[in-house]
Amino acid sequence: MMEGGEPMGRRQVTTATAAPRRYNMLFLILLLLPLLRQARAKVTNECQFPAAWSGRWFILGKEGPIITNTSHFLDRTCISKVEDTYLTHDENPETGSCYRCMIFTERDVNVIQYRESYCQPEPDLNAACAGVGADDILYSMFRLDGRPIDCPFAGPPFSFSYNRGHGECKALENQAESCTDGSKLLLKYQACADIKGAESSREELQCLATWKDGRNMFLVGTIKPADRDMPFSVDTFRCFLYEKVHHNGKIGYLISQSGDPSCTGLTSVTEGAKTFNFTKEDKEHVRCKYPSWVTQHHDWHFLDGSRNYHFTSGNSTLKVSYRNGGNEVMREEKVVCHNLEKIHPKDDSEGLKVKLVAHVTSGCDTGYVCMIFHKRDNHVIEVQQSSQKMTMPHEACSLDDPVKQPHMTLITSSLHKRSCPKPGRYTVMDLMHVPQLKQARRMRRKRYAVSTGRSQSHWKEDSNEAGDPSDDCQNADVQIGCSSSGQNEMIIQESCKKNDIVSAYSCHGSWEEAGTWYTIVSRNRSATAERETLCVAMRLTEGNIKMGRVEQQELWLSRPTNLCQRAVSSSQWTYKLTNQGVCEDLTRAASSSGSTSLLMRVSVALSVGVTLFSAILSR
């Protein structure tokens, strides 16, 4: 029977044959799908951005930090590439799939620039790149966590003029100075009354990247106020175009600065949001050197090690390191000798004193100071320095003479023993009534009471009950220079009921000022502790005539400290000593009695009294 002019049996045969074909095609597609996926992944993985570009970047006009990895840039995926030309893909909400050509130029590890095409609907690299022209916007990427570099302007300081678009300010005080960190430059602007926008200010430039494009030299850095500690902001990025020039035989630079965090529109060193004209300053640093008796040792330090002075091999630059209790460097200063100052012959008849002006750089805080160096010994010097930094070198010594500033005592790491001043045998006078000793005993009782939980009412109890044996000490003897032929050792022996206490010191250099002797001494606080270096002052009183006889001279001693204190008043002397004979007398006495017990070991008479020998000197 016929249906639609076609035999029924033939139609059934055709339908039965088509079904297996569809199943076979579906099976083939399922079989080939993994292979197609692998092939597509292989093609995608071949297009990658350089691994060195990975990180966080800033691009003007783009939101937030730009995070780049080897496969993605912004919100775009790398599709294909030819050298520095990339085809990227992203989904545009309005137009759908968007293919762009991006042409990159890596300027520095911290700066990448690129141009890009408009969206293209087809993934054709050549077609997309055909629309990119040299006049298209040049985008600049600045790395957010980039490591700074040394600034390219050789040999600061510079004087400069500047122009913010309203005229050139040529004030002589405009200065560009180096900072302790070579990646920073301090710009000091002075005001020009007749020019709009020419105001006094200070800016800190930190250099991040440099490159050359044809004849043009570019710099990228950050600019921020130097007088305020401000957190980092992407708005501080600036691009500079600079050219090295010569002004009357001196090196200089013409510089233009961008007005925003990009390099767009920066085409000439004479046109920009701000322009500079740097001229090398002749600061006479090369002709000024520190005294030879200072630089013969390149390293000096404070008695307590809190400050180190290192003189470079050129003998014109000094680096000062400030350290904390853990010996960590907290900050550093660079002190460059600028010029020597004249000293009246009466003030320096032996050539052991030098006065000079130095340029100090601490971070980006710079200025000129006046310094006086005193030679005390081959391994001991003292320095006085003015308290303020001046803008101009001629102001340093004239406006802030350091003659009244404290003396900073410096020593070398290898001290040599020297003879002690005022050798002889002494007895401490009025041991139990020295005010400093009483105060020391009270402090020791207080510490003991706190540690044992005793109340304040027990502070003045019997010293034996309080555990302070120093109150049992009735007298003390001091020997200066009696225990060696070099007379360079001193000892203090304290006689107490329970036991004798002996403190030993070595002398390392002495000098006399206005009747007072200052001596550098050292001692080992324990068998394992490092050597402690201190300074003590001594003054020998004149003998007084009383009741028809001359009273014996007294030797006054100050408390040993980390500084050699001047103008020690009578209330500051720790105790006074009475001379009991010279060292030769002791030697003869020891020889006649066959005993050498009087010739004890070394020590310098510096203590804070009875407790001086146990409490204060043992601290």
Features:
619 residues, alpha+beta, 8-stranded antiparallel β-sheet, elongated, disordered C terminus
The largest sheet, given as strand count, sense and whether it forms a barrel, is:
8 strands, antiparallel
Count, helices: 8
**In which order are the strands of the major sheet placed?**
4-3-10-9-8-7-6-5
- Overall geometry comes to elongated
End-to-end Cα distance: 126 Å
Number of strands: 37
- How does the helix and strand content classify structurally? alpha+beta
Classify the beta-strand content into a percent band.
Answer: 35-45%
- Using only C-alpha atoms, the radius of gyration works out to 41 Å
How much is the average pLDDT?
A: 79
Poorly predicted spans: 1-18, 32-45, 440-445, 447-452, 454-470, 589-619
Percent of residues in helices comes to 10-25%
Description:
With 619 residues, the chain is of the alpha+beta class. It contains 8 helices and 37 strands. Strands 4-3-10-9-8-7-6-5 form an 8-stranded antiparallel beta sheet. An 8-stranded antiparallel β-barrel has the order 11-13-14-15-16-17-18-19. A hairpin with a 3-residue loop joins strand 7 and strand 8.
TL;DR?
The protein has 8 helices and 37 strands. The chain is α+β, with helices and mostly antiparallel strands.
